[in-house]
Amino acid sequence: xxxxIEEAQQGLNEGGIPIGSxxxxxxxxxxxxxxxxxxxxxxxxxxxxxxxxxxxxxxAAIYRQSVLYTTLSPCAMCSGxxxxxxxxxxxxxxxxxxxxxxxxxxxxxxxxxxxxxxxxIRLMRxxxxxxxxxxxEDIGV
Length: 141
Prior knowledge:
This protein has eight helices and five strands; from the N terminus they run αββαααβαβαβαα.
């Protein structure tokens, strides 16, 4: 989770939305990323999507043996990617500021563990209070 939080902080430092993600395989971070929608003018670069992009092209077995860490509960798009690549375990920093598709993931056999990490909660609460328009845009409101 430490790598995901570092990514979230980097996103915030760049003027973006503080959501980070890391993908771990065999105890090693193989990809990490953060929400870059603002920075890149992207419609899809959420933290999880950026981390997947940074993993690069891998055999399916790599994804099926990996754990995805994310500072915020994954949205429908990111949950779809998790399912598509067969990632079996997701560790969520927090789901108090946004509850994504955790039940969908669980219903499809993905183990989801929510930490309610105070750093993750603080980052999102402070960001949402300071930039509600960016947050609303990110979640499609």
